[in-house]
Amino acid sequence: MDDHILEMRGITKTFPGVRALDDVNLAVRTGEIHAICGENGAGKSTLMKVLSGVYPAGSFDGEIIYEGRPVAFHGVRDSEGVGVVIIHQELALVPYLSIAENIFLGNERRGRGGLIDWNRAHAEAAGLLKSVGLHENPETPVAQLGVGKQQLVEIAKALSKNVRLLILDEPTAALNDSDSAHLLELLRDLKERGITSIMISHKLGEIISIGDRVTVLRDGQTVETLDVAAGEVNQDRIIRGMVGRDLDAYYPHRESHPGEEVLRVEDWTAWHPTQDRKVVDGVSFTARVGEVVGIAGLMGAGRTELAMSIFGRSWGRNITGRLFVRGEQVQARNVPEAISHGIAYATEDRKRYGLNLIEDIRRNVTAAALGKLSRRGWVNGNEETKVAEASRRSMNIKAPTVMSVVGKLSGGNQQKVVLSKWLYTDPEVLILDEPTRGIDVGAKYEIYTIVNRLVADGKAVVVISSELPELLGICDRIYTLASGRITGELPAEEATQETLMELMTQDKEVSA
Amino acid sequence: MSKTVPQTEEIVPAPNAAQRSEDASGRASLLGLLTANLRTSGIYIAFVTIVALFAILTGGTSVSPGNLTNIVLQYSYILVLAIGMVIVIIGGHIDLSVGSVVALTGAVSADLVIGHGYPFWVGVGAALVVGLAVGAWHGIWVAYVGIPAFIVTLAGMLLFRGLTLQVLDNVSLSPFPRSYTKIANGFLNGLLGGYGYDVFTLLIGGIAVAGYALHAWRSRSARIRYEQPVESLPLFGLKVLAVGVVVMVFAWQLAHARGLPIVLIILAVLVLVYGLVTNRTVFGRQVYAIGGNQPAAMLSGVKVKKVNFWIFVNMGFLSAVAGVIFSSRMNGAQPSAGEMFELDAIAAAFIGGAAVTGGVGTVVGAMAGGLIMAVMSNGMQLMGVEQQMQMVVKGLVLLLAVAFDVYNKRRAGASS
Questions:
Q1: CA B90 – CA B289 distance, rounded (Å)
Q2: Of A13, A130, A430, B258, which is most buried, counting CB atoms within 10 Å of its CB?
Q3: Which whole-number Å values give the CA distances from A265 to A96, B302, B324, in the listed order?
Q4: C-alpha distance from B239 to closest chain A C-alpha (Å)
Q5: Strand partners of residue A13
Q6: Distance of alpha carbon A87 from alpha carbon A151, whole angstroms
Q7: pLDDT per residue over B238-292, tens digit each?
Q8: Looking at residue B177, what DSSP letter applies?
Q9: Cβ–Cβ gap B228/A385 under 8 Å
């Protein structure tokens, strides 16, 4: 009891329509590296936001006991005041400010008359940089550093706040191998200095190599806490905790009769638009008529990047590889070309990339195929209404009329509008990126039913998802993707969540 | 796999709510129509209120035949600019250069017609070509190089003002031949004889009303055929009647002054054409799509760069039209012509309901916004309000109009 720096008891956090955390318990011992893992959407990040005060006290139920006393954080400042510092997955550095300015942002070193004492700031920054093993001038703008070094600046910033409990949200997701190794080494070093760390990670290898204990979350609940340091835990054991959920009753049945090949992608490679790394690396896959193909991969594996680079090169640079539709090699250099070759891509982030939220259903449904509704550039508005109305009925979009503004619909209905839009382009193959993200169980079932109807109508569907039960429930064949490479291909009936998770967490060395 | 269908948990209006309203009346009530379309109808209510207010304050002078004609002549070029500007704003951009382009196109035209004695149509043609070129210049920088329109057109504002001074050699050119000044100052009248008023003007007014009524009726019928909610028949009649009365009173007043201004015909044609372009064409749709959500438009296959390019070419074209009208009205070209026009055009678009963030706005709304500004300026001039107070009032109206827009959006967001 006494050796616990942190205890979170019975934490429950709800958002409208969703219970993100349900009676979660977490106990972290002083001086340990405590890992948290779970599938996407299991509630890891939400839990850390509760802990750090991003969700203020009172917006959730349950209690937090920090260093033996109950605490109520009303904001990040409160938690930082007592030495709890969170480093988010998306780094929160200001790119055009120097390292030193970033480290002391909001916490400036003041000298006489309230002016900033730059000499002192730079001297202190240099000391902090040394302690995290970063050999850079404190006056260097952060934008000039790679992601790995920026991560170290974040840690230096945390140290400047006298951190006692450091929370890292997927710290190595965007790092290459040597940067990851350096970061993990640093965490060990901090542990020696008495700093406790909580690390959210998908990389089970990392967890086992540096973690003391690991807490597994699933569907917003604590599954178990395992003692890694005692050596009794291997990756399989953790995976079992992460995925142990029933699949029944969520997926409509479908007879599978795959036909001829519709889509073939060969040796597909894409580079990050601004960073010097391959995000998609020599990927090949196929999809056939009447088939649902799954692509499984954890966050950062390159799933969306793969799909978007295929869809008219809408992501990445230096894209190479061959693309075949119905056996014929095609060029899809931009989105209109991709659409004309019968490829459709429904984005994972429908609000930012999928819909015009201030427009009505009608105009969203026809947005990708206005050509079908127009002669010499003039749109037939009545025909458009008819088309949208037909989609509303067949997709069961719950809105009074097709003139309803899309931004006011529920997530499930918005997703149906996105699907309607792509169906109206009359595609050969639909790539659905996280088609059920952020929508409730009932609407998910409807989406699966729509997918089944599509393949029955002779389309090929590629589903990208981080929810393994979903892939197992609706796919015929599943590819796994890790670090931009295909690490496996399994018929759905042979796959289990455990085998998939193992392939998804495989390191590059193993797959090569 | 078993197939228990889970209950849908989504919170939606009771499924029969929509049907109920269709079954019971099938028609939206007047109040419902007004509140549902507050954003769009508010502007017309404001317009009518302001016209009425100044009619009272000026003892009827502001709506007298002569003054109505004046308003049309004085503000037509701002309204032409506002048509282009609202399209630019819907696309999520801005154009600060239009005043300078008005000056440049007018100067080019004046140089050819006055300086070199070419016929009036050569001047008009050259002005339009220059306008298109300027638009293409802006379009290239905004769409293909990716510089924000604010910067590109701010540079253009200086650049084209400078070229204007160059063309004019820093002096004013005047006068134009009568054929040229007729564009902005001429009238079509007496074609069917006059009896103290111009029959031709009334006839055109009548045709316009009939055309509007026919169009409104046809689109209403189409909506009914497609089972869309429409206003009730009496309300529909009232709406058409109101528009008809306003247009006919306006035509009656014009007919008692100098007849139908040529520039009003130009303006009406532009409003009609651009109203259709924004509403009914693929291009118009794509402009709204880009302004509403550019990445989503790109991922829907909209050629974003191309559309942005043509938005600016079009703005250049309309700036040239305004340049011709303005030079014609001023009977010459001045180095300082068109200063601050960009602000009036932008204000018209925003008062007319265009959203600062893009994706929202209408040509007709921008016209109403421009006319509100016109009636206010004109009314205050008639009342002898000083220049400085006029600016204060106009500034406040612009601010309040956009505040209303933001408030509306927040209200809409809260109810979702």
A1: 9
A2: A430
A3: 40, 25, 57
A4: 21
A5: A21
A6: 9
A7: 888 988 998 898 888 888 888 888 999 999 999 999 999 998 899 999 999 999 9
A8: P
A9: yes
